[in-house]
Write a structure and sequence with these properties.
It comes from Caenorhabditis elegans. This is F-box domain-containing protein. By secondary structure, the chain is an alpha/beta fold. It is built from ten helices and 17 strands. The protein has a 15-stranded mixed beta sheet that branches. A two-stranded antiparallel ribbon has the order 5-9. Helix 9 crosses helix 10. The radius of gyration is 26 Å and the shape is elongated.
């Protein structure tokens, strides 16, 4: 009779580190012998999304809903089945993102009906419990079970909060890309900064769907290697950002006068060499903008530049020049603006 040899510690450790995170969680729950080892092995996550009612890890979502006899809710409810605005007893060992202050409803004490339930859905599986714990408490507990005590490396962290997210202060993430999906959460950037390990900073990329000047000056945003703006933004705020690399993928309708105003600010205040901004804009708007700029800055156009298809170079000063380019990527047209070193002969 042949016997299979048990796997050695290094082999188990290697397997755990490269295992799908969700499968790894299930394995640790069903096999207590590796529970302590699993906490010591780095956890690698490609995509992590945190909301006030769910956690998405790669392609799997853990979602909470509150149910009464008639309806389901993605938030806590009071005795009238309306959004619960009761105060939270803060724990010094936790971090809280609470955006309910932006909801102008009057406070009512929350006496939860014993008939209500809270449901956790994982894939096509459900777990239903009596509604004795608030959704933000259940989410905090689940976040702790999944991540506490582990080194969690996240390629892309997305955060969206419509109510409350509570997370243990010992849960930290090493992050490369941060995406904030809603306006309310921008007031909580200090808290978001606290759940990101210092070794992650500056972040490689930050993506925002709402951006104003005060927000853009926050350390978390100001120091990012690249800022991706998926929202409308006033021209002055855009032109005076401190970032060397900015991409705006949804500026299709940007008119030529907006781009000219943007360029005038760059020409007036200057940008350091290496600054590079790109915009997705309809081709005919790019052509119109470049034609207008060529006419306005006729004296600054580098000799021979006007005859190059899809490119225009303006001399800013004795040491730098501004290269405006038009490039097609797939089905999209990209307008690029880059400050380069000027080679003076």
């Amino acid at each position: 009779m042949s016997y299979s040899k048990p796997m050695s510690y290094p082999v188990i450790k290697c397997l755990l580190e490269h295992l799908d995170p969700n499968l790894r969680f299930k394995l640790a729950l069903s096999c207590p012998l590796i529970k302590n080892l699993e906490k010591l092995v780095h956890l690698h996550i490609k995509y992590l999304k945190l909301t006030d009612h769910s956690i998405t890890i790669n392609k799997d979502t853990y979602q909470f809903t509150v149910h009464n006899t008639k309806n389901g809710f993605l938030h806590d409810i009071d005795e009238r089945d309306e959004l619960d605005l009761s105060p939270i007893h803060e724990d010094p060992n936790e971090l809280i993102i609470d955006v309910r202050k932006n909801i102008r409803w009057y406070f009512r004490a929350a006496n939860v009906s014993s008939e209500n339930t809270i449901q956790l859905k994982i894939g096509d599986k459900f777990e239903i419990l009596r509604y004795r714990r608030k959704m933000h408490e259940a989410l905090k507990y689940l976040l702790g079970k999944l991540f506490e005590g582990k080194t969690v490396k996240v390629n892309h962290l997305t955060i969206k909060c419509g109510n409350v997210i509570r997370i243990l202060s010992t849960v930290k993430f090493r992050v490369k890309i941060l995406e904030v999906l809603d306006e309310n959460t921008y007031d909580e950037l200090d808290t978001i900064r606290s759940i990101i390990q210092t070794s992650s900073l500056p972040l490689n990329v930050e993506t925002f769907r709402f951006l104003q000047a005060p927000v853009s000056r926050h350390e978390l945003i100001r120091t990012a290697g690249m800022l991706e703006i998926r929202c409308s933004i006033d021209v002055h705020t855009l032109a005076t950002l401190n970032h060397r690399r900015v991409h705006a993928p949804y500026f299709y309708e940007w008119r030529s006068n907006c781009f000219v105003d943007f360029l005038e600010i760059w020409m007036e205040y200057g940008k350091e060499i290496g600054s590079y901004y790109t915009f997705n804009i309809f081709e005919h708007r790019i052509d119109k903008a470049m034609k207008r700029i060529r006419k306005m800055y006729k004296r600054s156009v580098e000799a021979g530049s006007a005859r190059r298809a899809g490119q225009l170079t303006l001399n800013m000063n004795n040491s730098s020049q501004l290269v405006i380019s038009k490039v097609k990527q797939g089905d999209a047209w990209i307008l690029g603006v880059e400050v380069k070193d000027r080679m003076v002969l």
